[in-house]
Amino acid sequence: MAGKFAIFVTIRCKPGKGAQFMPIIMENAIAARRDEPNCHEFRVMTAKDDPDTFHFYEVYTDESWLDFHREQPHYIKFREASADLIDDRQIQMTTVHL
């Protein structure tokens, strides 16, 4: 049985921009969970020692639903609103087994 598809994302905001970034990512995460039936989880976390570093854990039925997520109005709004706040983004794609 194939597992679900998940990503771990690390975002490093420009210094001092984490507080501005937080409501933007929260709006995107809440909309994804509410409006996308194949988005099973979307957790937003901040680094304990760095308020400008964020980690996301997102679970989708399969990889095609991440593509679907990236086409949604809430994601496009997030991408545009956060573009000038982000220094670095890393994405790790995974398979969830349990």
Which regions contain 5 or more consecutive residues with pLDDT less than 50? Answer: none
Beta-strand content estimate: 35-45%
Which architecture name does CATH use?
A: 2-Layer Sandwich
Task: Please describe the biggest sheet, giving its number of strands, its sense, and whether it closes into a barrel.
Answer: 4 strands, antiparallel
What distinguishing features does this structure have?
4-stranded antiparallel beta sheet, 4 strands, 98 residues, alpha+beta, Alpha-Beta Plaits, single chain
Word description of this protein:
The protein is an alpha+beta fold and 98 residues long. The chain has a single domain (4-96), classed as 2-Layer Sandwich (Alpha-Beta Plaits). 36% of the residues lie in helices and 42% in strands. The chain has three helices and four strands; from the N terminus they run E-H-E-E-H-H-E. The chain has helices spanning 18-35, 63-69, 73-82, and strands at residues 4-13, 39-47, 50-60, 86-96. It has a four-stranded antiparallel sheet with strand order 2-3-1-4. Helix 1 runs antiparallel to helix 3. The protein is globular. The termini are close together. The mean pLDDT is 96.
Write a short abstract of this structure:
By secondary structure, the chain is of the alpha+beta class. The chain has helices at residues 18-35, 63-69, 73-82, and strands at residues 4-13, 39-47, 50-60, 86-96. α1 packs antiparallel against α3.
